Amino acid sequence: MVSIKDVATHAGTSFKTVSRVVNNDPAVREETRVRVQQSIEALNYRPNSAARMMRNQKSGVIGFISDEVVTQPYAGDILLGAQQVASEHDKILMVVNIEHNRRRRQQSLDMLLERRVEALVLASYFHREVEVPPELSSVPSVLVNCFDSQASLAAFVPDDEQAGFDATQLLVDQGHKRIALISLDPAIVAAQLRLAGYRRALLQAGLPFDAALVVQGEEELGMTPGNCNAETAVANLMALESRPTAIVCGKDEIAMQVYFLLLRYGIRVGHEMALTSFDNQRLIAPNLSPGLTTMALPHLEMGRAALRYLFSAEADNSTRLIPFSVIARESHLLKA
Amino acid sequence: MVSIKDVATHAGTSFKTVSRVVNNDPAVREETRVRVQQSIEALNYRPNSAARMMRNQKSGVIGFISDEVVTQPYAGDILLGAQQVASEHDKILMVVNIEHNRRRRQQSLDMLLERRVEALVLASYFHREVEVPPELSSVPSVLVNCFDSQASLAAFVPDDEQAGFDATQLLVDQGHKRIALISLDPAIVAAQLRLAGYRRALLQAGLPFDAALVVQGEEELGMTPGNCNAETAVANLMALESRPTAIVCGKDEIAMQVYFLLLRYGIRVGHEMALTSFDNQRLIAPNLSPGLTTMALPHLEMGRAALRYLFSAEADNSTRLIPFSVIARESHLLKA
DNA sequence: CTGAAAGCGCTTACAG
DNA sequence: CTGAAAGCGCTTACAG
Question: Is the Cβ of B287 closer than 8 Å to some Cβ of chain A?
């Protein structure tokens, strides 16, 4: 590998002068600078970042531990947002993907720390509680889409309660009185919070809470959000004496199934049934007909906010709620 | 930051002995080893990888330039596969995401080269041709889900022609004689190849090729696969005097739209129309009813194969076709 | 404007 | 089994 000394020899100068040129030090004669620059190109010289790191005692690297965010649809936007802000601050991200595997997480953490990352981001592909390994406290760290039971670290999570409220309010605004909720696995944080938002919206609208209108559309799968099966949920709602006229679906995959399931009862979304949902899966929501009105997860914004926090040097360990945005298509409206 | 010397002082030994313990050199007395180990833990010492890199003249890092593979649904599996094989060889991946932006790609490349990556992977989120920057040739490099017009680099791409054949053959096997194809934007490599596979299957089955049965379900959007709009495509097929009894859909999003569009004509997938498709988007295919039979993109396997190639030290620059797998659900079958 | 010295934290031979 | 020397490629003061 060609080093600064090789360039110096080629340019007929001391290696210190080469260093000056590389670092844009103004104290170099123009003629010398040009000569050195030519040698750099001729030899295809590239500074060795390891040597720089060692002298500067800093790496310029931020570690990003991804718990499946890069392999789950659209959660990768967390990484995208983080990368945007990091690059504004001339830092680069070192990404390692772990699959909720403790041993792999520990290995990745050790590796990142040996590389002297200046900060750490731990991001999960769904909103959940995590156990924070103690090493995280050795550098500034932040959690994204997850939180620590001890609240020992700042966390950036989606505001699922507000989203639950908004998804319900959209239907309230259309005059619906019987609004059902097909809920996620109650073991999941988002399920609890979205349900709470649903109840708050009903309460505020003066509508009664009817437990029969809340059904579960996802099998219990421990802490992992799994495939849904809305068949029983829909059957239960259709068996009611007084059927709902609108449904808040726990996620877009459930909503998608509901479109098909309702057809068995001769009910069409957008005609006899209004629907809202969560996540804004771009693969699903715009391709349904009518288009699905859904609450978009703020992946990109969580990633950005988390990195902005790291650079702000704040020391406020609280959990920040990042709002969803309403993506209004047609499914919350009824056509004559 | 605590260094090897601090540990040596604490343990009352020379720093060289500490280095031996850290590197599991057997030539250390057990008693000394234990004492050093305790000091390492007491001081929370971690070897500085930059210093190691400088001495060893190698980084242990493989650069992974992701053209949106980490932000597009399931393409992240390329990264997952790459990471699996890399970690088997004790290498770690340094991932940078670019969004098909030349300047960003160049910056990322410079950064990775300054970090002395030992190899480079350039991966695209959809099968396409790319211009390979000349710097890629300075270290062993490989392309994933994309290829170079000059064929100057080994490339691992999905076998779209074979997938087109298989998707069609599934319907031929069910006795269909009039099989339509709703094609992708013809500017996309996959569209051409899948069409070729479709034609080969018809030919082999002795079925005539009818140009009226091939319609386009995606608007032209340059080189980027965009949202599809299958409405016109389906309308054209339904207007035919002799309608198809089966359709090969260019991708799962198109198939999803087709389920809904056919209902307007009183036609149900799985009853009056058989369907196959491509991609196996796990968000879509299992949630349709009937479940969508589709050809799964070999993302994980492409990532694995590419890294295996890098470690094999082969010098064969050819393009390798990685097979899709058939994910048979119910949509290719007709129920009475 | 240019250069010689020292040192960042390690490891690789070489002695003892 | 343990240690002193040299050097990886750079940058930071300090001279001139």
Answer: yes
